[in-house]
Amino acid sequence: MFASSLLLLLLKTWSYVGCNPTIGDVVVDRYSIPKLCPREVKSGDYVRYHYNVTFQDGKTFDSSYERGAASVGQTGQGRLIAGIDKGILGMCVNEKRKVTVPPHLAYGSLGAGDVVPPDSTLVFDLMLLDMWNKADLVVTETVSSPRDCKRSVKRTDFVRYHFNGTLLDGTPFDSRMRVRTHDSLVGEGWLIKGMDEGILGMCVGETRNIIIPPFLAYGEKGSGKEIPSQATLVFNVLLADLHNPKDDITVENQVLPESCARKSVAGDYMRYHYNGTFLNGVTFDTSYQRNNTYNTYIGLGYVISGMDKGLQGVCIGERRRVTLPPHMAYGEQGAGKDIPGSAVLVFDIHVIDFHNPKDSVEVHVTHKPEVCNLTSDVDDLIHYHYNCSLLDGTRLFSSSDYDNLQDTVLGADKVIDGLDEGLRGMCVGERRTVIIPPHLGHGEKGATGVPGSAVLHFELELMDLQKGVPEGYLFVWVEDAPLELFQAMDINQNGEVPIEEFGEFIMLQVAEGKGRMKPGVDPEEIIADMFRNQDRNKDGVIVAEELKLKVEEDKERMHEEL
């Protein structure tokens, strides 16, 4: 793959040469020629090649293969024997050829010590591995690029990329395509010079071939056993990530609700859904799969600093994309197996609701009747319609789901605190919306059908109101009680009041609007309880000495306690 990518990258024009030319007195047998040859050796080029050298009788006297190191030299400068200087011209990388060199273009009449006799014709079996010129530049080719490129690599940026590395002949020396990325600053000397240059201008998601001449790679020293001296390097690079150490978070793709009564601030408690991806679009986490919002305080360090900042200033119902540089996310260490070190994180957020622990109940009257003689208060029995939903519109409950109206006695701890408060001060026929923070609703744990820490939205309509009595009372006077209460109660004036007479008197006071019984309780039960309280000797009748108002009893009790 990479040999063909390289050849296509370098290819301007290519030729297939099937002849065996004679160059001067040098005979060339091109017995293995690659199909693509984007570049041929010219005078002045540097070459790296393997060879076997034999005499005409086939006896080998030298071999780079046996030494385990290819030969490196420059053509046209007299640094190679003259026959090789001529015979290597026009070679392609990965080409194999035999070059027959006459004595006068080899070691001549003197020979070479005891190894090469005088006037020896030499046969070189060459394989070209590499070629370059000092005038060469880093060569790049974009193999694929993303549709949208909002930012490209610049000097001082930090990049994470995958790569395959080969020599010019296609021999692989390193690969990080399937394991962790290579991470580095650009233009700060962390990379070889050619890579520093070749990666500039890349976009996240782009794949690029980069060919680097040896003097911009590892030069004469090479690198370890894999990269020999004076090797041209070919990289196939996929850019996975990009940021600058000076980056702040970025906010984009905002979708705002039609109205926004309030924006979030530090100290608020928020519930939100999110998708978390890397810059290349790969998802690493999502709250939607868990079917639960992520709940947290914001601006107080409970979440990574970039998210802490990105969640401030949002509206309930808002959607936004927040991109966090690694120094505002999980840094060089990453997080577990899913988030690598130095990763830029992208969060697509949907804010479900937020509140502040100091929030109170919000009441908005949507309709008020023209006539309102009574308003609801503590101890009153009320009947009402309601719809309950989350702030994102998710319906939870409705009185329309039941056959009867909802009823409650205000202040009796029968409904959540916020609803009890929101139902107070209403007129019959009044409609209102009430927003209840979770600490006045169902709290962190929630309830059946209600998520934990959820802000609740109620639509209320008061249908009926029965004024109540204070806690501990069964009956109260609306007007002043008769001065001679026992005489008024003793209808037949015989000095005794049985339960029938007592009940008739109480019901008369209620009917005339002079008194009021505790609502929501059977009147006969109230009368029986009141009679038992006054019949102190339990003889079935009340006499004047037994009859006392509850107010008087409370005063006596307080006096005794004091």
TrEMBL record:
Top enzyme class: isomerase
Residues annotated as domain PPIase FKBP-type: 44-132, 156-243, 267-355, 379-466
Q: What is this protein called?
A: peptidylprolyl isomerase
Q: Is the Glycosyltransferase keyword given for this protein?
A: no
A Pfam family per the record: FKBP_C
Please write the reaction equations for the catalytic activity of this protein: [protein]-peptidylproline (omega=180) = [protein]-peptidylproline (omega=0)
InterPro entries documented for this protein: EF-hand-dom_pair, EF_hand_dom, FKBP-like_isomerase, PPIase_dom_sf, PPIase_FKBP_dom
Q: Lineage in the entry?
A: Eukaryota, Metazoa, Chordata, Craniata, Vertebrata
Q: Does the keyword Coiled coil apply?
A: no
Q: Which segments constitute the EF-hand domain?
A: 477-512, 522-557
Give coiled-coil spans as residue ranges.
none
The signal sequence is 1-19
Outline what the protein does: PPIases accelerate the folding of proteins during protein synthesis.
Name the EC number(s): 5.2.1.8
Highest taxon above the source species: Eukaryota
Could you tell me where this protein is found in the cell? Endoplasmic reticulum
Cellular component terms, GO, for this chain's entry?
A: endoplasmic reticulum
Q: Which UniProt keywords apply?
A: Calcium, Endoplasmic reticulum, Glycoprotein, Isomerase, Metal-binding, Repeat, Rotamase, Signal
